[in-house]
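Teaching soon. Invent one.


***
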Amino acid sequence: MFRGLLLDFYGTVVEDDDDVVEAIAKQVAARASEQVDTREVARAWAREYEAVADGRPFRSLRECAARSLATVMAEVGCPGDPALLCAAMYAYWRSPPPRPGTREFLSRVAVPICVVSDADRDDVEAAMARHGLAFTAVVTSEDVGAYKPAGAMFRRALAALGLAADEVLHVGDSLTADVAGAHAAGIRAVWVNRHGRAAPRDVPIAYQITNLADLLGIGAFQTLLNGGRSA
């Protein structure tokens, strides 16, 4: 029986920044001194971001984004200030549109919810305020000093709700950060498959959905609509 819910934020509750990332990568590719395409820039940026985020000391998501982009810009000979290029991304993080099904789902769920996000707290709170969203608790990487799939993120969320791992469900769109991270913490995970990808066989996915409203039609989740009580 589920008595609580953990939710990733960007890509699950609100839309992720895929289009903004692509637009920035396109600008870098256009200004580069060597021939490189947008997809190459985006892939390199993602790799460098992971390296910065996994390093020490802990850095905010904004700093990780700018530092990793600076490395890629230097590699391809792109002039300019990475922080200025990232400005559109920073602005987006504060006002992303809700994903389809989010409002319907949140209006019907009765159990406590904790948002578990790698984004900086100020940006998450600004996005929530923008759309009038409220949750029982919010845990960000800034609070914990680590990024998902670190177990500390999920432990902090469980503590915030006062629940055990087997009493909650985690929902997120990243197979690594959300699904594998939750599973390692003993929490069942739902994968938000935004792009219709084939589900890998070696990843422990409890359920697969396209948006949060899909959970409303799954019988196993009826307790979420009844405050954790059986219907």
